[in-house]
Design brief:
The protein has two domains: about 30 residues; about 80 residues, F1F0 ATP synthase subunit C (F1FO ATP Synthase, Up-down Bundle), CATH 1.20.20. α2 runs antiparallel to α3. It has about 110 residues and is mainly α. It contains three helices and no strands. The radius of gyration is 20 Å and the shape is elongated.
Amino acid sequence: MAKLTKVILYSVLLVAFPGLALAADGWQASTGLGLAVGAGLAVGLAGLGCGIGQGLTAGNTTAGIARNPGAAGSMFTNFILAMVLIESIAIYGLVVALLLFFKMPELG
């Protein structure tokens, strides 16, 4: 648990400190760096959460069907519905990333 806490803390510091250093030099937020990081995080975290959710759902459905093969039909229906709802989270992350991407000014 302590290792996970350190990883999270270092990740936050890695993202926060460059912005603070650039703000001290009068750097303007209009360069789009923050929007680019936000877009990447939106897709990455949505994909990570969906991958975990889909893995848990598929594993538990498979275990349930293995224990009670007679209930496979109703479990499969619920499985498909759960997968659709989980995948919608990834689509929301993609939409947020695209909104941030198209809000970015040109960097060149």
